[in-house]
Design brief:
Bound molecules: nicotinamide-adenine-dinucleotide
Structural class: alpha/beta
CATH architecture of the largest domain: 3-Layer(aba) Sandwich
Number of helices: 16
Distance between the termini: 71 Å
């Protein structure tokens, strides 16, 4: 049995351990979740939401303590943990409490006259057991929000949190024990890749995965074996476009927060900055001053914490070395010291589109900057990426900003802001291109945890339908006549068609 030990990456402190789940435990957990599904899926939505309200109260009461524990697991600043992990989760719970009833109620849709007297509606049906596999960068909310969305929709859940931040997985398990939920409704399987693979092989009814592109592809391939629906929330290389008419001070504040918050370990970090050439010198000066003033470390009042995953340091070092070898210059920062989990906020100039630092996800506090001269060029540069998760456009010209935003190949776009689209639970969230498949959050995202079942209801009082056997010549005349009348250029009835319809209607009763 493998042991996962808990270590604070910022201080090196060891503070506990746990044992990885065995393949047998994965099977047993899945069976318990299947059994629990029968009762949970028939529990009223009002009751499910009462559990969520209890959880919300718990999170509000214990939020600061939980944020401290997340900070200990990740090396991130406790304030950031509170804002982005606790607040966002509580806000999402409230959103479901207010809106889930309407979002999950049967939705009546129009039925055309030809289908009279039928009625049609959509019934949102829970899918079964949802497997949630989550990453380490926001280990709390990127686990909890999909779990809660699946629960609200009537599914039971098996969560496999990241092995890089195992103490947060344990914390989530304790949270659900504190509510408490009925047995088997939410289970946590601790462990790494092997446990994740075993969970996928145990054939859940849906897989919700957040993590890297490489793992996403493997999960999708494994899921294809049994046609398990998969939702993938993957990486990004998000562009920020600053036009010359932007509020430069605001854009500079946004750029350094967007690039350095959580030490750049955000799927929606600003990883490529494009600035109009006319304001470039001024903008570079502003961001350099602001980045130089950031307080890095792990004390209470720090602003930039440590990296979380030691593996990520190697990728960042490699990207930087390649960029420097090709001529990039660090205005500030630029070193990845061996033996330290802290990387100083770094601004790079003289970068080119062919460098890895401008092409691949770096996932660290590195901000490479390039210039552009026209709107078309900015759009072309921003779209020249295999990723498409988030992007930002900065301009005081509303029409221009929206025109550019709508041309970006990105699942989410912020205008005069960064990252924040995720914070509105009414909006769908997800990527295009290599950044993922599917959407969660918002009504669309909640429906993604259901099967949208179409139900068409005939009163059942007539003996047959116009399209049923036995076929007659009148049926053909009627359908051809109807097609011309309803969809053609000349909307006229012929006597022959009217007679045919009359005879066909008689045959219905
Ligand atoms: P990762 O792909 O290495 O691991 C993610 C999870 O998958 C972990 O729990 C891991 O144990 C599990 N796993 C690994 N191999 C598996 C397999 N073969 N089968 C089943 N499970 C497996 O990702 P990471 O390093 O933890 O997270 C960082 C990545 O996540 C970055 O690329 C980041 O951009 C992305 N991310 C995306 C979003 C989003 O919403 N789009 C949010 C946060 C992070």
């Amino acid at each position: 049995m493998s042991i996962l030990s808990f270590q604070n990456p910022a201080t090196g402190e060891h503070f506990g351990s746990l044992t990885e789940a065995t393949p047998e435990q994965v099977q047993q957990t899945m069976e318990r979740a299947r059994i629990a599904f029968t009762a949970w899926s028939t529990t009223s939505l009002a009751e499910r939401l009462r559990y969520l309200a209890k959880l919300r109260h718990y999170l509000v009461e214990h939020g600061e303590d939980l944020a401290q524990k997340i900070s200990q697991a990740t090396g991130k600043i406790a304030l950031e943990a509170y804002m982005t992990e606790i607040f966002v989760t509580v806000d999402t719970i409230r959103f479901y409490e207010k809106n889930a009833m309407q979002m999950l109620s049967a939705q009546e849709v129009p039925t055309s006259l030809v289908l009279w007297p039928k009625k049609s509606y959509i019934h949102y049906k829970p899918m079964g057991v949802v497997a949630v596999i989550s990453p380490w960068n926001y280990p709390f909310q990127l686990s909890l929000i999909p779990v809660l969305s699946a629960l609200v929709a009537g599914n039971t859940v098996v969560l496999k949190p990241s092995e890089i931040t195992p103490s947060t997985g344990l914390m989530i398990e304790e949270l659900f024990r504190a509510v408490p939920l009925p047995d088997g409704v939410v289970s946590v399987l601790h462990g790494g890749r092997d446990v994740g693979q075993a969970l996928v092989a145990a054939r859940p009814d849906k897989i919700f995965f957040t993590g890297s592109v490489a793992t996403g592809k493997k999960i999708m391939a494994a899921a294809a074996e049994h046609l398990i629906p998969v939702e993938l929330e993957l990486g990004g290389k998000d562009p920020m476009i600053v036009f010359e008419d932007a509020h430069l001070e605001r854009a500079a504040n946004g750029a350094i927060w967007g690039a350095f918050t959580n030490s750049g370990q955000v799927c929606m970090s600003v990883e490529r900055l494009y600035v109009h050439e006319r304001v470039y010198p001024q903008f570079l000066k502003l961001i350099t001053q602001k980045a130089s003033a950031l307080r890095q470390g792990y004390p209470e009042d720090a602003e930039v914490g440590s990296m979380t995953s030691p593996q990520q340091l190697g990728i960042i070092r490699h990207h930087l070395e390649e960029a420097f070898a090709k001529g990039a210059k660090a205005v500030i920062g630029g070193q990845v010291s061996h033996g330290s989990m802290f990387i100083a906020p770094t601004i790079l100039t003289d970068v080119t589109a062919d460098m890895k630092i401008m092409k691949e996800e770096t996932f660290g506090p590195i901000l490479p900057i390039m210039t552009f001269s026209t709107e078309e060029e900015a759009i072309r540069l921003a779209n020249a990426s295999p990723y498409g998760l988030n992007a930002s456009v900065w301009s005081k010209d509303k029409t221009k900003a929206q025109r550019v935003a709508e041309q970006l190949e990105s699942g989410n776009v912020c205008i005069n802001d960064v990252i924040i689209s995720y914070a509105n639970p009414h909006l769908p969230f997800g990527g295009v291109k290599q950044s993922g498949i599917g959407r969660y959050r918002g009504p669309f995202g909640l429906h993604a945890f259901t099967h949208s079942i179409s139900i068409i209801h005939d009163p059942g009082t007539r003996k047959r339908e116009v399209n049923w056997y036995p076929y007659t010549k009148d049926q053909k005349i009627m359908f051809v006549g109807l097609t011309h009348f309803l969809f053609g250029k000349k909307r006229k009835w012929s006597r022959q068609t009217i007679r045919a319809i009359w005879r066909e209607v008689q045959r219905l009763f």
